[in-house]
Amino acid sequence: MRPALPLALVVMVAALVASSVAQESTDLGKRYFMDSGCYGCHTVGKMGTPIGSDLSHVGTKYSRAYLERWLRDPSMQRPSAHMPKLELSEDQVKALSAFLSSLR
């Protein structure tokens, strides 16, 4: 039974590291949301301008994968989309989608 203890510790440490990395990505995505001015068209809670969609609960409506595709090119997801295609790096897309998918 002793080998189970080290394995349990490894699993627990891996889960903590994964959680920490996910939180960092979410925090970075929130920073991108603010720095890029997304709140100029969208609301999250009481922050922002209600020109575009309210994103307060977008994470309950769409998967992270869908949000990534949307951020890369909104008109490919919905041709009638009013949101412009943004000049985002792949890291920015991943961080923003992490933040948006956390909004529940």
Task: Write structural notes for this entry.
The protein has about 100 residues and is mainly alpha-helical. It has a single domain (about 5-100), classed as Cytochrome Bc1 Complex, Chain D, domain 2 (Orthogonal Bundle), CATH 1.10.760.10. Helices cover about 60% and strands about 5% of the residues. The protein is built from 5 helices and 2 strands, in the order αββαααα. It has helices at about 5-35, 60, 65-70, 75, 90-100; strands at about 45, 45-50. The protein has a two-stranded antiparallel sheet with strand order 1-2. β1 (about 45) and β2 (about 45-50) form a beta hairpin. The longest helix has about 30 residues, at about 5-35. The chain is elongated. The chain starts with a helix and ends with a helix. About 15% of the residues are buried. The mean pLDDT is about 90.
Quick description:
The protein is mainly alpha-helical and 104 residues long.
What is the topology?
Elements: H1 4-35, E1 43-44, E2 47-48, H2 58-61, H3 64-72, H4 74-77, H5 90-102
Antiparallel strand pairs: 1-2
Helix pairs in contact: 1-5, 3-5
Which class do the helix and strand fractions yield? mainly alpha
Proper CATH architecture? Orthogonal Bundle
Taken together, the total number of domains comes to 1
The total of helices stands at 5
- Strand order across the largest sheet: 1-2
CATH H level, superfamily name = Cytochrome c-like domain
Q: Which CATH first-tier class would you pick? A: Mainly Alpha
Q: Using only CA atoms, what is the Rg?
A: 17 Å
List unreliable stretches of 5+ residues. Answer: none
Distance between the termini: 41 Å
What is the number of E strands? 2
* Topology order in helix (H) and strand (E) letters: HEEHHHH
* Shape field: elongated
CATH fold-level name? Cytochrome Bc1 Complex, Chain D, domain 2
User: What proportion of the residues is helical, as a percent range?
Assistant: 55-70%
Major sheet characteristics:
2 strands, antiparallel
